[in-house]
From TrEMBL:
<dbReference type="InterPro" id="IPR000600">
    <property type="entry name" value="ROK"/>
</dbReference>
<dbReference type="Pfam" id="PF12802">
    <property type="entry name" value="MarR_2"/>
</dbReference>
<dbReference type="InterPro" id="IPR036388">
    <property type="entry name" value="WH-like_DNA-bd_sf"/>
</dbReference>
<dbReference type="GO" id="GO:0003700">
    <property type="term" value="F:DNA-binding transcription factor activity"/>
</dbReference>
<dbReference type="InterPro" id="IPR043129">
    <property type="entry name" value="ATPase_NBD"/>
</dbReference>
<protein>
    <submittedName>
        <fullName>ROK family transcriptional regulator</fullName>
    </submittedName>
</protein>
<dbReference type="InterPro" id="IPR000835">
    <property type="entry name" value="HTH_MarR-typ"/>
</dbReference>
<dbReference type="InterPro" id="IPR019885">
    <property type="entry name" value="Tscrpt_reg_HTH_AsnC-type_CS"/>
</dbReference>
<dbReference type="InterPro" id="IPR036390">
    <property type="entry name" value="WH_DNA-bd_sf"/>
</dbReference>
<dbReference type="Pfam" id="PF00480">
    <property type="entry name" value="ROK"/>
</dbReference>
<feature type="domain" description="HTH marR-type">
    <location>
        <begin position="15"/>
        <end position="60"/>
    </location>
</feature>
<comment type="similarity">
    <text>Belongs to the ROK (NagC/XylR) family.</text>
</comment>
Amino acid sequence: MPRRTAATLATSGEVLRLIRSGEAVTRADLGRVTGLSRPAVQLRVGELIERGLVVERADAPSTGGRPPVRLEFNAAGGVVLVAALGASRTRVAVCDLAGRELAGRDFAIDVEQGPDVVLPLLLDTWDDLLGDRPREDVKGVGMGVPATVEFARGRTESVRVMASWTGVLIPPIVRERFPVPVLVDNDVNALAIGEHRGVYPDLDDLMFVKVSTRIGAGVIAGGGILRGALGAAGEIGHIPVRDGGGVLCRCGNVDCVDSVASGTALLRDLRAAGKDVKTIADVTALVRAGDAETMATVREAGRRIGEVLAGAVNILNPSVVVLGGDVAEAFGPLVSSIREVVYRRSTALATRRLRIEPSRLGAGAGISGCAVMVLDSVLSPEAVDESLAHRAS
Ligand SMILES: [Zn+2]
């Protein structure tokens, strides 16, 4: 067995991880868990306290004698800036280091207006929401955008869907105003991360399907987000359905599920059938009123989505499929058709314990997912050690 050397001793970043996860809450715990000497524990804890990442509380229950000082992760020790961009709605927020939203604002903005319009709006809104707070408090930025993203570089990739954003490297633009780590991911990945961490933290395999203006999925596999080679994992919207009728999709292919069953497709088909529907809310009203033709169109869309999801379930074998997005949230008949087809078409083994559930966090999952994404990165032991070293030098 290799001897424990100074190089393998727990760093301040690892000590923070132990405190943050609750694995060690006193200096004595830390000594026991890490094998560090008392002075070494003291040094690391002192550094973290000085940095505002850890606070001491003297309120631990006493078993007689002096109660040990409890160490707590200081969620108020900084903030992260987050933005969940949707095709037609965007939420911008400031969160604490536990991912709780401190202030936020919603915008009805068309992302197709492009980065020159949207990014300055985000930056100004964060500035506004921060108010008098010192800008050194900002530890990172997390964003979800409705496009395929090459995650490592924060570069938007999808040429056909968010054309004005093609090839845009978002992080350098954000860093001009806020010189901190900037993480950008696909919007549905952010929803999947948020719903996973917030509602199903004990499950390792989850698929989040967003049915809204567009259709997409975010996949949690083995406990982490599955991004694929170029960030395009989970792009189920452009899988074709059978007998779709030859609908040309904006991606150039024919009968993609997105082109026959998304919110956009529903509105188009209902209008073609003579219904006066401008928004998803109009469709909801017709469903509530029990309009037979609308119900049939919605059910058909559900079957189409179910067909594609059944294939995805066979490949990924998730424990839970979460259905979110305003279309899924508004239509009971759509969700029941999806369920029916997935259970009928997927293999018995893949569906034996499969749950299909509506999103519990709704649009809020986007903001919390972006916060989790950036916090996991900036509070990782490596990142904390690097920033402490940077500061010391
Ligand atoms: Zn397509």
